[in-house]
Amino acid sequence: MDKILLVDDNPAVLEALSLLLEIHGYTVVTANTPVAARQIVNYQSISLVIQDMNFSADTTSGEEGKQLFKALRELNPHLPVILITAWTELEQAVELVKAGAADYIAKPWDDQKLINTVANLIELGKARSQSAQLAKQQTVFLDAREAANKVGLVYQSAAMQRLIDMVIQVAKSDISVLITGPNGSGKEKIAQLIQACSPLRDKPFISINAGALPPDLMEAELFGAEPGAYTGAQKVRIGRFEAADGGTLFLDEIGNLSPTGQMKLLRVLQTGEFERLGSVQTRKVNVRVVSATNADLTTDIRQGRFREDLYYRLNAIELRLPPLSERPDDVMPLITHFLPGRDIGLDVQKALADYTWPGNVRELENACKRVAVLKPDGDIRLADFALTGSTAVTHAAVSAEPSRQALEYAIEKHEGVIARVAKEFGMSRQSLYRRLKKFGIEY
Fold this sequence. Notes:
- By secondary structure, the protein is α/β, with parallel strands linked by helices.
- Helices cover about 50% and strands about 10% of the residues.
- Strand 1, helix 1 and strand 2 form a beta-alpha-beta unit.
């Protein structure tokens, strides 16, 4: 319900206006001083203010009303304010209308005119609020798209848009984030997007794969090491936590961290403190940790492979990155990104979208690299991607060699434009000509 603030030092005026507005369905709050009015606007949701121009006895200059209006505008620049004025303050009221006041009413006021003015201003305020909210949503979307482009995230699916919108929100805080999803799905890109949208965007972003090194070396990578701490350590080694101080550390495949590494990681998350291997000197850092895993850590916890207390430290917010098979709308934008300017027929596009992509974006990227090397020009066929083990691909590969009936139908549909027919079947024009000749089809 719309709430209206009345500001006047005259109790009779407050009572009369309150009764009038409440009869017409408005909620009314009142204040008899500018200080009380500012407090109400600061802490309550007010749709409109009706304020007097003077609040002290024997004062008629309107200066108090002018100062209150300016204060209310500072608290809420879009708040409609109607001024109650006597003829002696009319010039001052007109000046404030020029400065942004919504309107003024002269004493004594016309009840119906006042109610009409209030209703119009409140509806106008709602429309402006909706427009501002829409503009804000569009800005967030554009910012999300721009930020995603900066880190190389290519997408079109609604599932990815929802995830990225959530990333934008999460990035504003310093809360720990756990990114889950299968191998090759782009978890590090999501971590980079968190960094790019965070207040730490200009600070270090350090990443490490916890499954890439043996446990003893992993601890040295994370926390550093003194000379002689392990075989081959001949000089001081700066760990990733030190390198990321003030910024973000991305720990990929966190489920592979050793029990000792988990214990040390928990400590540094709790206190910011750690020691290099071979050192007793305690060091302190301020690092935001973003971690990722393709494992089911809850199962690892039940089986004793992962610490439950560490899991809850890392998983303040979980961001699930869906596999490529759950977002087929992203397949062609990704292929276009990896193979810019290449022509791919509709049948081939459909087969690629239907393929399960067990290796996710990494498999798709590698398939595109193969095409770029082995088929640097000309139309791209499904076979050029060398995808195997999928019924969808096998079916599409057969259908990519069109039958006589399919060719005749396509020629009729495209009004004999061979280039369009060839594109539909993912064939070069030369291949199509040979196919037409084989069937004896005139064109």
